[in-house]
Amino acid sequence: MSIFLHAQKNSVLWEVSGNGLEKSSYLFGTIHLQDKRVFCFPDSVWIVFENIDILALEIVMNFDDPKAIAEKIMIKDQSKSLKNILSKKEYKRVKKSVNKNLGLTMSLMMDKILPMMIAAELMSSQTNKDEKLPMDLYLQKSAEKKQKKLFSLESIDSQFSVLDNIPIDKQKEELLNVVDSMEKYKQLADSMIVLYQQQNIEALYKITDEGSSSFDEALEAELLDKRNKAMVTKLKDKMKEGSVFVAVGAGHLWGDNGLIHLLQMQGYSVRPVYSTCTK
Q1: Engineering a disulfide at 242: which of 53, 61, 74, 141 sits with its beta carbon 3.0 to 4.6 angstroms away?
Q2: Lowest mean pLDDT among 25-29, 75-79, 262-266, 268-272
Q3: What is this structure's pTM?
Q4: What is the C-alpha to C-alpha distance for residues 57 and 136, in angstroms, rounded to an integer?
């Protein structure tokens, strides 16, 4: 059994210390949604956030150039476009679902976007959009107001290349699975939100893994494991510069190749910080 599995309580916030660090850093598991149900942060999060030097995100977004972001995620290989990988019947099913759940703009763009990204947007559409920004970007805006330093653990190019490396037949399978099971994904999204409110990152990790039914271990390794190892490499240097608040999807924290265990294996002490939201 891995060291980190001995945690007694659920927490989305973990303190990283020791191994020569002058200041503690923190791992915070986010959920990439705009649903107000997940925006009741544990009290300790804001206490810690006030005192950190650096906010590390998967990607620090440049809000001044949204067109550049859009251009980055457009597919370059047209053989991977929906019209080229789907039958006419399948294409019609996807188009109908995108129109219904994502609206006209996405419907017009969908031939230029990887199937995996469309599948992710469809799953996200089954949650509320009460907040102006997803949690990660909300934290970025909060850090900018407090004049904290910002650091990207990844780039849009690297994230897109991970998706681009997933075989197109697997992406097609996942997209059609989502389109044909929207009610299931609505229930899955609600279950994930409840688990996030409970700060149960182990169960959240497992339910996320179960949600990608068409993926095998090799693809899961591409989506999470390799990225986690690359993040830890960057964090080892960045944490020497000051206290870092690492806000990444909660799925990156748990598991034998999650950030908690990987940092423990590097000699750091990683412990849960317990608190609840008292708003």
Answers
A1: 53
A2: 75-79
A3: 0.89
A4: 7
